[in-house]
Design goal:
Blueprint (H helix, E strand, L loop, with lengths): L4 E14 L3 E15 L4 E6 L5 H8 L7 E9 L2 E2 L2 H7 L4 E4 L12 H5 L6 H13 L16 H13 L5 E5 L7 H16 L3 E6 L2 H7 L2 E6 L2 E7 L12 H8 L34 H5 L6 E3 L2 E3 L11
Parallel strand pairs: 3-8, 3-9, 6-7, 7-8
Antiparallel strand pairs: 1-2, 1-4, 4-5, 9-10, 10-12, 11-12
This protein binds adenosine-5'-diphosphate and magnesium ion.
Magnesium ion binds next to helix 1.
Length: about 325
């Protein structure tokens, strides 16, 4: 069976006009590759501003008007052209976006989830989808503005998964939810994967990602800097890139050690490693090398000239 989703060398840039006439190209995502097999949850984890939401929208051809994309995206082995993306969107492939503003403000919750269908089967599936997230049937008659933020998020997710999609792309699925509601949503995403769907989980929260992901792609300033299996995170020694180890050390159960400095704005680092400015192991080669490749390393991949050895931590 072909992978559900295969992204090869994807780059996204924006075209901007300086002072109204000088055209400027602003790269945001560079050479990203990612594969999701049926039944797999793949997490993309990175700090805010690293390009995660753009990736989620780019796959479905939903970039802002000035965004452009290069590289290839295959869905079930066939190119996902803009036309095909439009046909499959909301049906076989769903995006659960970061903001709840994507709910239609003029349509009652139930009508939105049923996509206007009124037959008994659609009604039953709608009620069951909401019930799964602890939302009672009375909510079906409400408009989005009558919902609390957490309730709106649950409705958004119920609406996305009601028709059993094959690929679920979810962008920061649980902000503003208590641990119980968040756990329910994550558990359900994992269940959908166990039933054969592919799930792309986009988040800044490594801890959350590790609760359900099989594989983790770590993003930094628009580049993949590491690919790892979820179990590699059981100790920092299993990880490969200094940034991934820093993320690991910043987790509450590993001491909350912050990383000083900030990620550069995507596209502002032309030469060398984008993490150089924050890396305690940085050497002259890291800054002078034109382009550091992502290469296979200990069963995963790493974009670092001097990846961490397993023994050191
Ligand atoms: N329409 C746009 N024009 C120019 N830059 C944009 C546009 N949309 C987003 N960006 C920039 O792209 C970068 C990545 O954004 P985003 O994907 O939202 O990051 P994340 O979801 O990881 O927080 C940010 O630095 C953001 O400012
Ligand atoms: Mg985002």
């Amino acid at each position: 069976m072909p992978p559900i989703l295969e992204i090869r060398d994807l780059s996204i840039h924006f075209v901007q006009y300086e002072r109204g006439f000088r055209r400027r190209r602003l790269p945001v995502i560079r050479d990203l590759s990612l594969t999701i097999q049926p039944g797999q949850v793949v997490a993309v984890v990175g700090a805010s501003g690293s390009g995660k939401s753009l990736l989620a929208h780019g796959i479905l051809d939903l970039l802002p008007y000035n965004g452009q994309m290069e590289g290839s995206i295959l869905y079930q082995g066939e190119p996902l052209s803009p036309r095909r993306a439009e046909q499959l969107r909301g049906d076989e492939i769903v995006l659960i976006p970061q903001g709840v503003t994507y709910l239609d403000p003029l349509m009652k919750v139930g009508d939105q989830i049923r996509r206007g269908r009124k037959d008994p089967d659609s009604r039953a599936r709608c009620t069951a989808a909401l019930q799964r997230y602890g939302v009672g049937p009375e909510v079906e008659a409400l408009y989005p503005f009558e919902l609390s933020g957490g309730m709106a998020r649950r409705v958004l997710i119920a609406s996305a998964v009601v028709d059993r999609p094959k690929l679920i792309i979810t962008d920061e699925p649980t902000p503003g939810l208590d641990a119980k509601a968040a756990g329910r949503i994550l558990g359900h995403l994992r269940e959908l994967a166990e039933e054969g769907a592919g799930v792309l989980l986009v988040t800044h929260d490594l801890e959350l990602a590790l609760t359900i992901a099989h594989r983790v792609t770590v993003f930094y300033a628009g580049e993949t800097i590491e690919e790892a299996a979820a179990q590699d995170f059981s100790s920092s020694a299993g990880l490969r890139h200094p940034f991934t180890r820093a993320l690991w050390r910043a987790m509450p159960q590993h001491g909350f050690h912050p990383l000083s400095g900030a990620q550069p704005y995507p596209g502002t680092v032309d030469t060398g490693c984008p993490f150089a400015g924050q890396c305690s192991r940085c050497r002259p080669d890291c800054v002078q090398t034109q382009r550091i490749p992502l290469r296979p390393w200990r069963g995963g991949a790493v974009r670092c000239l001097f990846p961490e050895e397993e023994a050191s931590s």
